[in-house]
Write a structure and sequence with these properties.
The chain is α+β, with helices and mostly antiparallel strands. The protein is globular and about 70 Å long.
Length: about 475
């Protein structure tokens, strides 16, 4: 049997013209592929048989298509461009700004870059190494650095101008990769040292941050099926096994070209979205779905999962858990889930199922169950696969109970005393891995019951994630 190789094609910003995608699909088909899949960084994958590799590489060279073979040295630039006009219409960030930024990149990034609108919750905020998040100031962005192979975050102390994003990214990448012993896969980083080193490489104008970044309440918009916006439709397509047949996607490209739909968008949820479908053309698109027998109305609790790319183990576990959720008839609205079978993958969600070295699992969740939060709370370790469903279902019930408690607490306050600002709480945070100790939860794995104040912990208490001593925890305020 012939060996197979994995081909990865980056689609910067998560979009591609119908004509360009059609060329890629034809090459994949000639190389023996029958389907393709999309990654959680909005890239394209397919497999090629070894005995057809030379012909495929010649075709790629002829058409000027950049690709990687069995590698991911150059991560795709990820963006919320897919959300424009369908999931958000707030703020100044529009199609032209996104495209101008993408066009200004003159280098192939080796670190992960996210360019996202802060008003949306469809595309993760902090899953990149360089996370540019729109501010209220037109054409200026917050810049959050997550050092590679680390959970250490640093917010650059000034806003970044749109035109400077490519240059700043290139210079910061060079600083990190030339000083891996200081900034790459290390437990602790000196933010001041990084700041000083970067300013030696590039002059970054200092646009003051006048307001801190406030994360929006999370909800995952339903991203399947026909959906109306303005005087047009958009169509979202998700595949349960992540596989999109070449014949289907080629039909999609041809209809896009015939009807002057310029672009096809990929999403971090491994689905595709087609915008700008004219009202009179809905039946034409429906015929394509009929021809290929495609279902476009999956249950919401199947659409809110992220798993690693090309992970058969993660995909199988997701399918098992989704079936169990269906059997339990469980509500998962406003929650998102991540399955991690490999270390340091960077995926983010409200509830994380992380495989341990002993093949059991740790269940974690973010502070206040917001997937864009950078603080993680360990719920339970050493959970056997057979017990995952019951533990996760119990955690979902806990989430909704806490949500109702918050609503009831606010409702008891007289209306004239209710404040519109975000709620705030004080917690203790490990300065090394950002794990939070919240007295409301305690540390059940460590034998510490809920309601135990931090001051009451024994002096030999250590972080349940990185094992740092009690003295490594700092008192911080968190808003939601």
């Amino acid at each position: 049997m012939s060996a197979h190789h994995v081909v990865k094609i980056n689609l910067p910003g998560g979009y591609v013209s119908a004509g360009d995608l059609h060329e890629m699909l034809v090459i994949a088909e000639q190389a023996g592929a029958v389907d393709v899949r999309f990654g959680n960084r909005q890239q394209l994958y397919f497999t090629v048989e070894a005995d057809r590799l030379d012909d495929m590489e010649a075709d790629m060279l002829r058409d000027g298509i950049d690709y990687e073979l069995d590698a991911d040295e150059y991560p795709n630039i990820m963006s919320s461009y897919v959300c424009d006009s369908i999931f958000t219409q707030e703020g100044w960030l529009r199609e032209g700004v996104y495209r101008d930024i993408f066009d200004m990149f003159r280098h192939k990034p080796r670190l992960k870059i996210n360019i996202v609108d802060r008003h949306q919750t469809f595309v993760p905020f902090f899953s990149g190494n360089f996370n540019f998040i729109s501010s209220d100031v037109s054409n200026y962005w917050y810049w959050y650095i997550r050092y590679p192979k680390s959970s250490w975050f640093y917010c650059w102390p000034s806003l970044i101008y749109s035109d400077d994003i490519p240059l700043v990214s290139k210079a910061a990448e060079e600083v990190i990769l030339k000083n891996k012993n200081l900034f790459y896969d290390v437990a602790e980083v000196s933010d001041q040292h990084f700041y000083d080193e970067l300013l030696k490489q590039i002059d970054i104008p200092a646009q003051a941050i006048t307001e801190p970044l406030l994360l929006p309440d999370f909800y995952l918009p339903y991203y399947e099926g026909f959906n109306k916006y303005t005087n047009k439709y958009w169509l979202g397509i998700y595949r349960r096994k992540e596989l999109f047949s070449l014949s289907f996607l080629k039909d999609v490209c041809r209809l896009c070209i015939q009807t002057r739909v310029g672009q096809i968008y990929t999403t971090p949820w491994k689905s595709v979205i087609i915008k700008d479908i004219g009202m009179a053309l809905r039946n034409d698109w429906g015929m394509i779905l009929d021809k290929h027998r495609l279902n476009v109305r999956h249950a919401s609790n199947e659409l809110n999962w992220q798993i690693e790319d090309l992970s058969d183990e993660g995909l199988a576990l997701k399918q098992q858990l989704v079936r169990d959720y269906e059997e339990a008839d469980l509500r998962t609205y406003r929650l998102s889930f991540v399955i991690k079978t490999r270390p340091k993958t960077g995926l983010m969600g409200a509830i994380i199922i992380k495989k341990q070295s002993n093949n059991a699992f740790e269940i974690m969740h973010t502070l206040n169950f917001n997937p864009n939060s950078k603080e993680y709370i360990s719920h339970k370790k050493n959970v056997e696969r057979a017990d995952l469903s019951s533990e996760l279902i119990a955690l979902c019930h806990t989430y909704y109970s806490l949500l109702l408690q918050d609503v009831k607490a606010i409702a008891t306050v007289p209306e004239e005393q209710q404040q519109p600002q975000n709620l705030q709480q004080t917690v203790y945070e490990c300065r090394f891995c950002k794990t939070v100790y919240d007295s409301a939860y305690g540390d059940t794995d460590g034998g510490i019951p809920a309601g135990t104040e931090f001051a009451a912990l024994k002096d030999d208490y250590s972080c349940p994630v990185c094992e740092s001593p009690k003295q490594a925890f700092e008192l911080v305020a968190r808003s939601w």
